[in-house]
Amino acid sequence: MKNKKEKVKNISLSTYFxxxxxxxxxxxxxxxxxxxxxxxQTILFASxxxxxxxxxxxxxxxxxxxxxxxxxxxxxxxxxxxLIYQKYASKIMxxxxxxxxxxxxxxxxxxxxxxxxxxxxxRIINDPEKVVQNLADxxxxxxxxxxxxxxxxxxxxxxxxxxxxxxxxxxxxILLERFRRTRNQKNLFYMRRKNDKIHSLxxxxxxxxKDIKSLGLExxxxxxxxxYYDEYQKASYNYEVKDLTMWNLRNIIVEIFGVLLLILGxxxxxxxILTLASFMIIYSNNNNLSSFVWCFGKIMDIFxxxxxxxxxxxxLFDNEEYVCERFGNTHLDNIKGKIEFKKxxxxxxxxxxxxxxxxxxxxxxxxxxxxxxxxxxxxxIFDKLSFKIQPNTTVAFVGKSGSGKSTILNLMSKxxxxxxxxxxxxxxxxxxxxxxxxxxxISLVNQxxxxxxxxxxxxxxxxxxxxxxxxxxxxxxQASLKExxxxxxxxxxxxxxxxxxxxxxxxxxRLAIARALLRNSPIIIFDESTSSLDNFAQEDIKKxxxxxxxxxxxxxxxxxxxxxxxxxxxxxxxxxxxxxxGTFDELFKNNPKFKKMFYAENLNDELN
Length: 608
Prior knowledge:
four-stranded antiparallel β-sheet; six-stranded mixed β-sheet; Rossmann fold; 2 domains; ABC transporter transmembrane region fold; elongated; alpha/beta
């Protein structure tokens, strides 16, 4: 029975902060003590000024001495808060990065094909950093705003008319800040999406530099890069200019009203409603009004940045858009390797992409997490497809491009999930199998296997961390890698570079086969493993596969029919249907289309 969709994991920033609440509370308390020192320092300075204007010099000097002590305590607290921040910020960021990376491992293959690489990189690495840094800035700004607010209130209490004027200024500026935040909110997601596209393109350029050079694509990709950078620059410029305009408008209002406040103060002195000492306090602390408004605006920016980064990060946990793999609870030991497709139907669904050409409105942002993805097109691949593969046999799937060969392998390994019907391993629906059973029973060797930037031995140990040297050497020999590794100065301790860049295509394939052999899986799948190799490398891979016959269930998707002459059974596909089965000789003799494909392949090889 098909599993129901799992509920989305209930996760938020509070989940991570709760884990380190003692450290966070310590950080806030120490920072607040430092902030309280700043408030006391400012108030005492005002008191010192008042004593100086009244000629109470001794009292003024005592107050200034107290201020010196407060400054020392304040600086020590700031230093301690910095140490605490560095300790716990790195822990929180590491936890966020790790959980997001783990979530990325849970996403199914279709999810990765539906989204750009940059989206994952930015959400896993950059967005957590933005959240932690902005929240640290928030504590700093809150302390400053409390200081400015206390002094603003203190100034406002000196005279009722001054207080009313300050209230009007602050109220007007708060309204402007809310308007500025609303405008920014429309553009920030848009700008970040443009940045995602740049990261995706950069990743592709780095990974495909040889193809770019060999095909002379430098100029074309430079044009595309320029287009992406221009789009990002335009979005960034639009965001920054609108933000700058609102900031300056607000600053003009605050500064002009600040001067008007002083004019009001002079007028009140003239009519004997305000003392000169009070005016001096207002004058010396007039900047606290603009500081309060600036801090309020900064808090708006921080909340916007944190909200944007949080929505982007935790969207990875939205199982509607970023669909995860699902497993059952059935555990099987000693898998024999029998595979059966029973009336399997599968369609490839294309979803409508998010509109990158317009900023999101506030209403759209609220719906971002829960929005339903719209289907753009549906391509039916299989309709009630059925077949059986017996344990420890070697079978192949052949057919024209688009006939569904690779899709069968993806369904067989549960990289894709069937729409209806069942895929069975040893008679058990793979949807009911637990992750350990499914992953340990199947090894997949892709057309372009990923080799990690490690030594040959370390790449092999990824498949089986406790593998002995004897097991490693046996896997190397079976994969026809022994001669190559023997020629290397450092042997199995040779580093192969990122994505195995120091290896040829055939060497990568054989290393991937050795990795699969080391796992000793009862089912091994080869997806177009020889299609991009020369005849010599192809023979080595064929020899490696032949070494496995009778030891595991081997499933091959073959581009070259000459590589599957010795398999036990061939499934001939056409338009998502199995139109014929048999051995190579049987199909060659009885199926004209198969025979024609073989001759066409050999003719192409001769021409090449």
